[in-house]
Every structure is written in C-alpha cells, then in structure tokens.
Amino acid sequence: MNDLDSQIESILFTAGRPVSLSELTKTLNQKKPEVKQALEQLKQNLSQRGITLIEKDEKYQLVSSPENARTVGSFLVAEQREKLTDVAIETLAIITYKQPISRAEIEAIRGVNSQYILRQLLIRGLIEKATSDEDARRLVYKTTLDFMTHLGIKDMKDLPDFEELTKSVTLPEQTDLKDQPIQMEVPQNNEAPPISPEDT
C-alpha cells in the first residue's frame, strides 16, 4: 500500500461516514484521477478482509464486509443486551442536558476520548447524530424517541430540572478544560475498541 492509499484509508476510518471525492482531493491536495486510482487500489487491498470500501455518487465509506453480516449482527444483539455502564450513563446524561452537543464538547466535559461509548449509545438507539443548525459541516448528538421510551416519559420536559438536580452538588475546582489533555478511554470488561469510529 502506498502513502496515498494509506492516507485515504485513515481518513475514511476516522470519518466513520461517507466522504466525498471532492473532500478527499481537497484534504490530500491531489487531483481526482490520482485519488480515484488510490481508492480503487484500496478497494482491491480490502477485498479479502473484514472491512470493505463502498461507493455511491462519488462518496466513499469503509463498512463491514457483507459476508460477515450474520456474525456482526449477532455481536451487536449481544452488545445491546448488556447493561449500561456508569460511563455510558454519565455520557448519556451530558447529552440529555446539553443537547445538541458535539463530540468535542462531550470530551471537554468528560476529559477523555468518548468515541467508544458514543458508539455504544448509537448502537442502542439512545442517541443519534444530527447536523448542527449553526454549521452544516458540524455533527452533534441528541437523544432519540427510544431514549424517552426507555425512561417512560412522554416529553423531555418531564425530566428533572438540571439546576434543581445539581444545586446540592459541589464540583471540584478545575483548570480551563481546553488546557486539559484528552485521555483515551479504555473499554470496560476487557472489551475490544470499536472497528468503525464515529464522529462528530
């Protein structure tokens, strides 16, 4: 695999969404023919692996191989049956009271990389990605109707008032969040990190 193939694979893996050919050419500072050739080479390199490259209307995305759909489906079902961890509940609470909120904002509050736990909440259908009203290029997270069903509420107004809920909580003094490094979050129970990341 040459450098261009490698760079494209990293971009698509990190994006976790369809990436347009124009985005790739702009990011890589390359012409379309060269990028298309590298994409074709990447597709061939992945032909015998568990990840494959799909394309539609000049948009490209890395996805799980269709041949493994049954196995992956079984894994996801088992994953959804597991109870929410304290970390998942913490992240879900942040999204609930701060939505719509970006991944960067979530990680600034938590102080750790939240990619894995956000993926878990997305898989369970408790949160969803949406385009920011302020910037169409920016993705944000918000809770879903399934989230309300799980809580047994008919309206988000039925949730406890955040100010009332936290008025007795004394937070420790902290330095400016933007000056704090974002740490990697280690999955609990020795679980493997996600194959496909998400994004914000």
Notes on the protein architecture:
The chain is an alpha+beta fold and 200 residues long. The protein is built from nine helices and five strands, in the order H-E-H-H-E-E-H-H-H-H-E-E-H-H. The strands form two sheets. It has a three-stranded antiparallel sheet. Strands 4-5 form a two-stranded antiparallel sheet. Strand 2 and strand 3 form a beta hairpin. The longest helix is centred in the N-terminal third of the chain and has 14 residues. The C terminus is likely disordered.
In summary, what is this structure?
This protein has 2 domains: 3-67, Arc Repressor Mutant, subunit A (Orthogonal Bundle), CATH 1.10.10; 82-190, Arc Repressor Mutant, subunit A (Orthogonal Bundle), CATH 1.10.10.
How many beta-strand segments?
5
Biggest beta sheet summary: 3 strands, antiparallel
Regions with little confidence, pLDDT below 50 for 5+ residues:
174-178, 190-200
**Major β-sheet strand ordering:** 1-3-2
Protein traits:
200 residues; alpha+beta; Arc Repressor Mutant, subunit A; 2 domains; 9 helices; 5 strands; globular; disordered C terminus
Task: Describe the secondary structure blueprint for this structure.
Elements: H1 3-15, E1 19-20, H2 21-28, H3 32-45, E2 51-56, E3 59-64, H4 69-81, H5 86-98, H6 103-110, H7 115-123, E4 127-131, E5 139-143, H8 145-151, H9 162-166
